[in-house]
């Protein structure tokens, strides 16, 4: 059985990890845009050092498509 404090700490850590991953993804998108490279799940993952799965989790295909259309 988990204590309330342990559960709260776990939720806090998860939020911090999520925030950090989203920030890395946004930074990678900015870098790819500045260097005029195509923005794909794979290129984002390679640029920011998170897994392809993490990028897919936070960035759906429609959002990715719109990122490539906006110039």
Comma- or semicolon-separated keywords:
mainly alpha; 0% strand; 71 residues
What does the model show?
This protein has 71 residues and is mainly α. Helices cover 77% and strands 0% of the residues. The chain contains 4 helices and no strands.
Write the layout of secondary structure elements.
Elements: H1 4-34, H2 41-48, H3 52-58, H4 61-69
How many strands, which pairing sense, and closed or not: the largest β-sheet? none
Strand tally: 0
**Percentage of residues in DSSP E strands:** under 5%
Distance between the termini: 52 Å
Category by helix and strand content: mainly alpha
User: What share of residues is helical?
Assistant: over 70%
* Shape estimate: elongated
Order of helices and strands: HHHH
Mean pLDDT: 92
Uncertain segments? none
How is this structure best summarized?
The protein is mainly alpha-helical and 71 residues long. 77% of the residues lie in helices and 0% in strands.
């Amino acid at each position: 059985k988990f204590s309330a404090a342990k559960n709260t700490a776990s939720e806090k850590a998860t939020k911090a990890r999520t925030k950090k991953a989203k920030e890395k993804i946004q930074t990678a998108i900015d870098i790819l845009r500045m260097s005029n490279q195509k923005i794909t799940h794979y290129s984002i993952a390679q640029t920011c050092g998170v897994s392809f799965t993490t990028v897919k989790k936070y960035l759906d295909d429609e959002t990715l498509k719109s990122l490539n259309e906006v110039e």
